[in-house]
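fyi for ur records
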Amino acid sequence: MHEIAVDIKNIRKSYSGTRVLNNISLQIFQGELFGFIGPDGAGKTSLFHILTSLLLPDNGSAVVAGYDTVKDYAQIRRIVGYMPGKFSLYQDLTVEENLKFFAGIFKTTIHENYALYKDIYGQIEPFRKRKAGQLSGGMKQKLALSCALVHKPQLLFLDEPTTGVDAVSRTEFWEMLKKLRDQGITIIVSTPYMDEAALCDRVALMDRGQLMAVDAPANIIRAFGQPLFAVKSDKMFPLPQALAVIEQTKTVYRSGEFVHYLNNQADFDPARIEDQLLKLGHAGITIRRIEPTIEDCFMLLMQNPLEVETN
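which gave:
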């Protein structure tokens, strides 16, 4: 049986009457790489602030590594590492000075837990005398992660850590996270990038303060359970409206260069799509049945919210 690292029960939070977290309940297991996936405004940052004892919930409770986030905030701050979405280190201090500063806060040294983050810090150590404000996005990311790890936390909270960095840095960052997970650290990350969901052990899909699904990415995709079609024509702008009027249409949305189409009928004949578009004067029609992605699951759940089961 997995040991529970984070236990969230019925968390609610509102700002000026606007509900940003609505009865959030789930468990995260020790040693997991767990992702909260959702767009801006989903409530991810507010939830992270509650879990790291920086914000009080209106209702509900959360326990992190056996400590209550309200009653035991001092203990929690000693055992978690937190990397906020915005680069928040001291830009007028050098790389080395920032790391020493955070080590000092936790009454440790750069060298005491160096083995934990040496692969990360080693990439920016040649620039240790450079001021943090002069670093590239990817280097700032590595410095912030090093500072979050300097005290060897049991849990690591990373709020949208790959936003604003290049694709190569994103890939490198996730490789680093996997290595940290393999060293026994529980890693909890939030991201708006749907493709990063596949890199997590389990994910929670969130939108407007609600949990829509909690499971392994492969299980969420497997539960999609209906034929999905990618459609293209010479009239892409009115294409979604043309598809929406087909009988028993479930959902239609743009995805890259295609429009994705889903019908309520399990035995839906895609020839009906072509017939409909030809009637409306479309040409150059392409229709392909495709396998759903996490993004497709997210779009479907947004329009058809379900009772969430956490697995």
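The mean pLDDT is 93. thats all i got for now
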